[in-house]
Inverse folding.
């Protein structure tokens, strides 16, 4: 009967032999898709963690397949648990990088240096993992004294509290940024889409974190003594379906979500490209720079000390309207690249939801459109128009004419 102890099993139950194979296949497909998207969008710098995370899952479920046929082997159990449980924090880091890239894209309303999103939240997440690992090691050693066992419990509680604080702070930062952009009328549809994806991904990871914490505490209460009844163990450990729903299922949905709504479909490749205040023009600027010491930015990412002292050191390069001119050979635009995405952009501009759009349009958006190159081409088209299309224009001419501004849309660009 389900939920009963299987004699000799390290897992408590006899692991399912079919589902690990299915999940290995699904994550392998997701991994291949992520690799293709990183290559196609040339977005390894800010989405490279996504294929690596899925690759870790593939390795974990391959080992789980071996463990299902050898459930008395503790090595398979340890390796499978470490890999499957170690991959989700990588998705958290990926989300931190994505939010940082969003703040780079609209720097006007970023409450902190976009580069500090990863370092600050990553640092806090490292503390959480350290507490969890330390606490779990104390609880797993039944030979330790009761005081050590209590310390393990307290460390896990502290880890959970910090984890929930990190997730809440991360979500609050994203919501604050979105509300501020909406207040100033600078929230294009593609940015709303990527923020929605970020919220869903964070919610999925939060559900998985809560499940993992409950399982931790359930396992910590197990003390095997003479006459111990295995059926007294918490059902979350005795029944395998909890794992497949709240761990494997949720993380597979998260990986598929980031395939279907890949961040590079909505954001430029370079963090030096930012959206002008007209909500349409993309500008290649000098990039964001925080001149404080790194340790200070880690402790005070929002520069609260500078604000209190009236010495905010945030580099507001957009107020100087700085632009980096393109090389002359980059001023031509590929008409084929623009026409290949015209139908997709047309459907997106009509405000059609993804389920109302044509399958071909969705496919091209996911796999054929290189938004980074497209944005780059449209920016170059606007600059070429501003200079009269003269390939021999000097950098000074480009700077002078580009300073007049331009508006770029799918398939056209004109000086303002």
């Amino acid at each position: 009967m389900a939920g009963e102890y299987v004699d000799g099993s390290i897992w408590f139950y006899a692991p399912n032999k079919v589902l690990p194979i299915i999940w290995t296949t699904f994550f392998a497909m997701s991994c291949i898709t992520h690799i293709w998207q990183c290559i196609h969008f040339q977005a390894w710098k800010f989405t490279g963690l996504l294929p690596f995370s899925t690759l870790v899952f593939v390795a974990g479920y391959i080992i789980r397949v071996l463990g299902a046929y050898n459930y008395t082997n503790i090595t398979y159990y340890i390796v499978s648990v470490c890999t499957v449980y170690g991959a989700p924090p990588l998705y958290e880091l990926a989300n931190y990088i994505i939010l940082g890239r969003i703040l780079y894209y609209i720097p006007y309303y970023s409450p902190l240096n976009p580069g500090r999103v990863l370092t600050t939240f990553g640092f806090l997440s490292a503390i959480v993992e350290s507490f969890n690992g330390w606490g779990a090691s104390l609880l797993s050693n039944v030979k330790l004294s009761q005081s050590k066992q209590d310390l393990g419990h307290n460390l896990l509680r502290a880890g959970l509290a910090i984890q929930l604080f990190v997730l809440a702070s991360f979500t609050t930062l994203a919501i604050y940024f979105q509300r501020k952009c909406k207040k100033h009328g600078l929230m294009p549809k593609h940015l709303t889409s990527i923020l929605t994806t970020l919220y869903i991904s964070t919610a999925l990871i939060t559900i998985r974190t809560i499940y993992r914490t409950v399982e931790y505490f359930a396992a910590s209460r197990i003390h095997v003594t003479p006459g111990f009844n295995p059926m007294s163990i918490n059902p979350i450990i005795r029944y395998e379906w909890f794992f497949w729903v709240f761990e494997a299922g949720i993380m597979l949905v998260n990986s598929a979500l980031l395939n279907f709504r890949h961040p590079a479909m909505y954001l430029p490749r370079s963090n030096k490209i930012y959206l002008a205040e007209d909500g349409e023009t993309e500008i290649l600027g000098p990039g964001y720079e925080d001149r404080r010491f790194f340790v200070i930015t880690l402790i005070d990412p929002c520069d609260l000390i500078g604000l209190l002292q009236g010495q905010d050191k945030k580099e507001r390069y957009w107020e100087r309207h700085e632009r980096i001119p393109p090389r002359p050979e980059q001023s031509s635009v590929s008409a084929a690249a623009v026409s290949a995405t015209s139908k997709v952009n047309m459907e997106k501009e009509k405000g059609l939801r993804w389920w109302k759009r044509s399958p071909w349009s969705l496919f091209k958006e996911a796999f054929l459109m290189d938004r980074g190159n497209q944005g780059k081409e449209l920016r170059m088209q606007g600059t070429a128009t501003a200079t009269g299309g003269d390939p021999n224009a000097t950098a000074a001419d480009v700077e002078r004419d580009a300073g007049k501004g331009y508006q770029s849309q799918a398939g056209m660009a004109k000086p303002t």
Notes: Confidence is low (pLDDT under 50) at residues 325-351, 370-416. The beta strands are 273-275, 282-284, 406-409, 412-415.
